[in-house]
Amino acid sequence: MRAKDLRKEYSGRPAVRDISFEIPKGKVVSFIGPNGAGKSTVLGLVSRLIARDCGEIYFQGRDISRWRSRDLAKKLAILTQSNNINMKLTVRELVTFGRFPYSRSRMTDEDNRVIDEAIAYMDLTDMEDRLIDEISGGERQRAYIAMVIAQDTEYVLLDEPTNNLDIYHAAKMMKTVRRLCDELGKTVILVLHEINYASFYSDYICAFRDGQIVKFGTVSEVMTKETLSEIYRVEFEIQEINGKPLAIYY
User: Residues near 188 by Cβ (< 8 Å), separated by ≥ 6?
Assistant: First the structure.
Protein backbone atom coordinates (compact mmCIF):
# COMPACT_ATOMS: atom_id res chain seq x y z
CA MET A 1 0.00 0.00 0.00
CA ARG A 2 1.33 3.39 -1.02
CA ALA A 3 -0.05 6.91 -0.55
CA LYS A 4 1.19 10.11 -2.14
CA ASP A 5 0.26 13.75 -1.46
CA LEU A 6 -3.01 12.97 0.33
CA ARG A 7 -5.16 15.89 1.33
CA LYS A 8 -8.52 16.12 3.04
CA GLU A 9 -10.37 19.28 4.05
CA TYR A 10 -13.47 19.90 6.12
CA SER A 11 -15.21 23.26 5.65
CA GLY A 12 -12.10 24.60 3.95
CA ARG A 13 -9.77 23.58 6.78
CA PRO A 14 -7.18 20.86 6.09
CA ALA A 15 -7.49 17.73 8.24
CA VAL A 16 -4.49 16.13 6.51
CA ARG A 17 -2.14 17.68 3.98
CA ASP A 18 0.75 16.46 1.86
CA ILE A 19 0.66 12.96 3.37
CA SER A 20 2.89 10.39 1.64
CA PHE A 21 4.00 6.97 2.90
CA GLU A 22 4.44 3.33 1.97
CA ILE A 23 3.27 0.53 4.27
CA PRO A 24 5.71 -2.41 4.50
CA LYS A 25 3.88 -5.66 3.81
CA GLY A 26 3.57 -8.22 6.59
CA LYS A 27 4.40 -5.73 9.36
CA VAL A 28 2.62 -3.93 12.19
CA VAL A 29 2.49 -0.17 11.61
CA SER A 30 1.14 2.13 14.33
CA PHE A 31 -0.15 5.66 13.76
CA ILE A 32 0.49 7.83 16.82
CA GLY A 33 0.00 11.51 17.65
CA PRO A 34 -2.23 13.84 19.66
CA ASN A 35 -5.97 14.23 19.16
CA GLY A 36 -6.78 15.92 15.86
CA ALA A 37 -3.42 15.04 14.30
CA GLY A 38 -5.03 13.25 11.32
CA LYS A 39 -4.41 9.61 12.25
CA SER A 40 -7.98 8.34 11.95
CA THR A 41 -8.62 10.49 8.87
CA VAL A 42 -5.69 8.86 7.06
CA LEU A 43 -6.94 5.41 8.10
CA GLY A 44 -10.34 6.32 6.65
CA LEU A 45 -8.78 7.56 3.41
CA VAL A 46 -6.75 4.42 2.77
CA SER A 47 -9.79 2.22 3.50
CA ARG A 48 -12.12 4.26 1.24
CA LEU A 49 -14.43 5.13 4.13
CA ILE A 50 -13.48 8.77 3.54
CA ALA A 51 -13.16 10.31 0.07
CA ARG A 52 -9.85 12.04 -0.53
CA ASP A 53 -9.78 15.56 -1.93
CA CYS A 54 -6.56 14.94 -3.80
CA GLY A 55 -3.59 12.61 -3.84
CA GLU A 56 -3.05 8.98 -4.76
CA ILE A 57 -3.57 5.67 -2.93
CA TYR A 58 -2.32 2.49 -4.55
CA PHE A 59 -3.28 -0.90 -3.14
CA GLN A 60 -1.59 -3.96 -4.63
CA GLY A 61 -0.64 -2.02 -7.76
CA ARG A 62 -4.03 -0.43 -8.47
CA ASP A 63 -5.59 2.87 -7.47
CA ILE A 64 -7.82 1.93 -4.56
CA SER A 65 -10.80 3.68 -6.16
CA ARG A 66 -10.73 1.10 -8.97
CA TRP A 67 -11.34 -1.87 -6.69
CA ARG A 68 -14.82 -3.39 -6.57
CA SER A 69 -16.12 -3.13 -3.01
CA ARG A 70 -16.63 -6.87 -2.59
CA ASP A 71 -13.15 -7.67 -3.89
CA LEU A 72 -11.55 -5.04 -1.66
CA ALA A 73 -13.44 -6.42 1.36
CA LYS A 74 -11.66 -9.75 0.82
CA LYS A 75 -8.28 -8.00 0.96
CA LEU A 76 -8.74 -5.23 3.51
CA ALA A 77 -10.75 -5.04 6.73
CA ILE A 78 -11.22 -2.00 8.96
CA LEU A 79 -12.61 -1.49 12.44
CA THR A 80 -13.47 2.13 13.22
CA GLN A 81 -14.07 3.78 16.60
CA SER A 82 -17.84 4.01 16.02
CA ASN A 83 -19.36 0.54 15.94
CA ASN A 84 -22.96 0.89 17.07
CA ILE A 85 -25.19 -1.86 15.73
CA ASN A 86 -28.78 -1.36 16.89
CA MET A 87 -29.84 -4.98 16.51
CA LYS A 88 -30.39 -7.84 18.90
CA LEU A 89 -27.37 -9.93 17.96
CA THR A 90 -25.39 -12.58 19.74
CA VAL A 91 -21.61 -12.42 19.74
CA ARG A 92 -21.49 -15.22 17.18
CA GLU A 93 -24.00 -13.50 14.90
CA LEU A 94 -21.90 -10.34 15.00
CA VAL A 95 -18.72 -12.22 14.13
CA THR A 96 -20.58 -13.92 11.28
CA PHE A 97 -20.84 -10.53 9.52
CA GLY A 98 -17.12 -10.87 8.79
CA ARG A 99 -17.87 -13.66 6.33
CA PHE A 100 -20.38 -11.62 4.29
CA PRO A 101 -17.93 -10.75 1.44
CA TYR A 102 -17.41 -14.48 0.84
CA SER A 103 -20.74 -16.23 1.37
CA ARG A 104 -23.24 -13.41 1.78
CA SER A 105 -25.95 -14.92 4.00
CA ARG A 106 -25.29 -18.59 3.21
CA MET A 107 -22.69 -19.82 5.67
CA THR A 108 -20.58 -22.82 4.66
CA ASP A 109 -18.62 -25.24 6.83
CA GLU A 110 -15.49 -23.23 5.98
CA ASP A 111 -17.19 -20.02 7.10
CA ASN A 112 -18.17 -21.61 10.41
CA ARG A 113 -14.62 -22.89 10.93
CA VAL A 114 -13.20 -19.38 10.42
CA ILE A 115 -15.84 -17.92 12.75
CA ASP A 116 -15.00 -20.47 15.46
CA GLU A 117 -11.30 -19.62 15.18
CA ALA A 118 -11.94 -15.88 15.35
CA ILE A 119 -14.10 -16.25 18.45
CA ALA A 120 -11.42 -18.40 20.11
CA TYR A 121 -8.70 -15.88 19.13
CA MET A 122 -10.48 -13.23 21.14
CA ASP A 123 -11.30 -15.49 24.11
CA LEU A 124 -15.05 -15.25 23.51
CA THR A 125 -16.05 -18.90 23.21
CA ASP A 126 -17.84 -18.97 26.56
CA MET A 127 -20.02 -16.00 25.64
CA GLU A 128 -20.66 -16.53 21.92
CA ASP A 129 -24.40 -17.00 22.52
CA ARG A 130 -24.82 -13.87 24.63
CA LEU A 131 -26.36 -10.70 23.21
CA ILE A 132 -23.84 -7.96 22.46
CA ASP A 133 -25.92 -5.34 24.31
CA GLU A 134 -25.72 -7.48 27.46
CA ILE A 135 -21.94 -7.69 27.67
CA SER A 136 -19.39 -5.11 28.79
CA GLY A 137 -17.89 -2.48 26.50
CA GLY A 138 -14.56 -4.27 26.57
CA GLU A 139 -16.15 -7.59 25.65
CA ARG A 140 -18.02 -5.89 22.80
CA GLN A 141 -14.74 -4.45 21.52
CA ARG A 142 -13.24 -7.93 21.47
CA ALA A 143 -16.30 -9.20 19.57
CA TYR A 144 -15.84 -6.52 16.91
CA ILE A 145 -12.17 -7.47 16.58
CA ALA A 146 -13.24 -11.10 16.17
CA MET A 147 -15.56 -9.99 13.34
CA VAL A 148 -12.61 -8.33 11.60
CA ILE A 149 -10.46 -11.44 12.09
CA ALA A 150 -13.24 -13.57 10.58
CA GLN A 151 -13.10 -11.42 7.46
CA ASP A 152 -9.70 -13.08 6.88
CA THR A 153 -8.05 -10.30 4.90
CA GLU A 154 -4.40 -9.65 4.09
CA TYR A 155 -4.62 -6.13 5.53
CA VAL A 156 -6.24 -5.28 8.86
CA LEU A 157 -6.88 -1.64 9.84
CA LEU A 158 -7.77 -0.93 13.47
CA ASP A 159 -8.72 2.47 14.86
CA GLU A 160 -7.86 2.51 18.58
CA PRO A 161 -8.47 -1.22 19.17
CA THR A 162 -7.58 -0.97 22.88
CA ASN A 163 -10.45 1.45 23.58
CA ASN A 164 -12.61 0.34 26.53
CA LEU A 165 -10.25 -2.48 27.43
CA ASP A 166 -8.64 -2.95 30.83
CA ILE A 167 -4.88 -3.43 31.08
CA TYR A 168 -5.09 -7.23 30.85
CA HIS A 169 -7.28 -7.30 27.74
CA ALA A 170 -5.49 -4.33 26.11
CA ALA A 171 -2.18 -6.18 26.39
CA LYS A 172 -3.84 -9.35 25.13
CA MET A 173 -5.28 -7.37 22.22
CA MET A 174 -1.83 -6.13 21.24
CA LYS A 175 -0.45 -9.67 21.48
CA THR A 176 -3.25 -10.74 19.14
CA VAL A 177 -2.20 -7.98 16.73
CA ARG A 178 1.34 -9.40 16.76
CA ARG A 179 0.02 -12.92 16.20
CA LEU A 180 -1.99 -11.75 13.19
CA CYS A 181 1.25 -10.47 11.70
CA ASP A 182 3.75 -13.09 12.85
CA GLU A 183 1.63 -16.23 12.53
CA LEU A 184 -0.83 -15.36 9.77
CA GLY A 185 1.30 -12.95 7.73
CA LYS A 186 -1.18 -10.09 7.85
CA THR A 187 -0.26 -6.43 7.47
CA VAL A 188 -1.76 -4.51 10.39
CA ILE A 189 -2.18 -0.73 10.48
CA LEU A 190 -3.55 0.68 13.71
CA VAL A 191 -4.19 3.99 15.39
CA LEU A 192 -2.97 4.05 18.99
CA HIS A 193 -2.90 6.62 21.76
CA GLU A 194 -0.82 4.36 24.02
CA ILE A 195 2.64 5.10 22.64
CA ASN A 196 4.32 2.38 24.68
CA TYR A 197 2.00 -0.23 23.17
CA ALA A 198 3.12 1.12 19.80
CA SER A 199 6.74 0.74 20.89
CA PHE A 200 6.43 -2.79 22.26
CA TYR A 201 4.24 -4.36 19.55
CA SER A 202 4.94 -2.48 16.29
CA ASP A 203 7.57 -2.85 13.60
CA TYR A 204 7.12 0.71 12.32
CA ILE A 205 5.58 3.88 13.72
CA CYS A 206 4.12 6.80 11.79
CA ALA A 207 3.94 9.91 13.96
CA PHE A 208 1.45 12.69 13.10
CA ARG A 209 1.11 16.30 14.16
CA ASP A 210 -1.28 18.95 12.80
CA GLY A 211 -2.37 16.84 9.83
CA GLN A 212 1.14 16.00 8.65
CA ILE A 213 3.66 13.22 9.16
CA VAL A 214 6.46 14.24 11.48
CA LYS A 215 8.34 10.93 11.33
CA PHE A 216 7.86 7.48 9.75
CA GLY A 217 10.39 4.84 10.66
CA THR A 218 11.29 1.89 12.82
CA VAL A 219 10.36 1.92 16.48
CA SER A 220 13.87 2.95 17.53
CA GLU A 221 13.91 5.76 14.94
CA VAL A 222 10.64 7.30 16.12
CA MET A 223 10.68 6.58 19.85
CA THR A 224 13.19 9.25 20.76
CA LYS A 225 12.70 12.03 23.27
CA GLU A 226 13.27 14.63 20.54
CA THR A 227 10.62 13.25 18.19
CA LEU A 228 8.05 12.53 20.90
CA SER A 229 8.54 15.96 22.47
CA GLU A 230 8.00 17.57 19.06
CA ILE A 231 4.80 15.61 18.50
CA TYR A 232 3.19 15.89 21.93
CA ARG A 233 4.86 19.09 23.15
CA VAL A 234 5.71 17.69 26.55
CA GLU A 235 9.07 16.53 27.87
CA PHE A 236 9.96 12.85 27.55
CA GLU A 237 12.56 10.48 28.87
CA ILE A 238 13.30 7.19 27.12
CA GLN A 239 14.24 4.05 29.02
CA GLU A 240 14.79 0.57 27.62
CA ILE A 241 12.96 -2.56 28.76
CA ASN A 242 13.62 -5.92 27.09
CA GLY A 243 15.29 -4.11 24.21
CA LYS A 244 12.27 -1.84 23.59
CA PRO A 245 12.16 1.93 24.25
CA LEU A 246 9.75 2.96 26.99
CA ALA A 247 8.55 6.58 26.96
CA ILE A 248 8.02 8.44 30.24
CA TYR A 249 6.59 11.95 30.06
CA TYR A 250 6.43 14.69 32.66
Answer: 27, 28, 29, 155, 156, 157, 158, 177, 180, 181
Q: Kindly report the pTM of this predicted structure.
A: 0.91
pLDDT tens track for 171-211: 988 998 999 999 889 999 999 999 999 999 999 999 999 99
Sequence-ordered list of residues with C-beta below 8 angstroms from that of 53, at least 6 positions apart, any chain: 7, 8, 9
83: three-class secondary structure by DSSP: coil
C-alpha closest to that of 177 among 151, 220, 204, 145:
145
Short-list 42, 23, 27, CA closest to 212: 42
* Alpha-helix runs per DSSP H in the chain: 39-47, 69-73, 91-96, 100-103, 109-121, 137-150, 167-182, 195-201, 219-222, 225-232
Distance separating alpha carbons of residues 39 and 159, to the nearest angstrom:
9
Rounded Cα distance between 54 and 43, Å, is 15
114 with 150: CB under 8 angstroms?
yes
